[in-house]
Design a protein that fits this description.
By secondary structure, the protein is mainly alpha-helical. About 50% of the residues lie in helices and about 10% in strands.
């Protein structure tokens, strides 16, 4: 859904679910869903309204996924000044807990985009590598947390290994 506002993503999800029912099934059966939208709402609305739109998408995804976890991520602060204040306010609303039913994670707001972008707005290869690493570490932490909750009386996984690049991100859990 590259380049779409949260409102357009919501519309697109509903359309795609009709034409591709397995997408809806995959979301419904996922252990973890992370929504990383909101930045393209900059062009259409205020930071608070954008955060509310993100909440709407997350609540919708939660309604499909009763047993998994659904998160919204914070946004990377762009190095372009005109966008930076909007993104700061947007992240502040997300993190303020003023929007009920919205669980935040992973958090990208403190990434140094000047090192991870050529245009100051979109990540470059190094930026995508860094995002992939943060995402896979977050996923590993959730796997380890869920494993601990469910199987506390048996052996814990030895480690969650993160392999991240701009082209692939994978995690594996290895038992001793």
């Amino acid at each position: 859904f590259e380049g779409k506002s949260s409102l357009r993503i919501m519309e697109r999800l509903e359309t795609d679910f009709k034409s591709t029912p397995e997408l809806k099934t995959n979301i419904a059966n996922a252990d973890l869903v992370i929504f990383t939208g909101g930045l393209n709402d900059y062009w259409e609305t205020s930071p608070r309204a954008a955060a509310k739109r993100v909440r709407t998408v997350v609540v919708y995804l939660k309604s499909l996924n009763k047993n998994g976890e659904v998160f919204a991520s914070t946004a990377i602060s762009p190095k372009l000044q005109r966008h930076n204040e909007w993104v700061f306010q947007y992240n502040r609303v997300l993190l303020s807990n003023s929007l009920h039913n919205l669980t935040i994670g992973p958090r990208f707001e403190s990434l140094p985009l000047e090192e991870l972008s050529t245009d100051g707005l979109h990540p470059n290869t190094q930026g995508y590598d860094r995002l992939a690493k943060i995402l896979t570490e977050f996923i590993c932490s959730r796997i380890e947390s869920k494993f601990s909750e469910r199987y506390s009386k048996i052996r814990q996984p030895k480690q969650c290994t993160v392999h991240a690049s701009a082209n692939r991100a994978a995690n594996t859990t290895q038992a001793p």
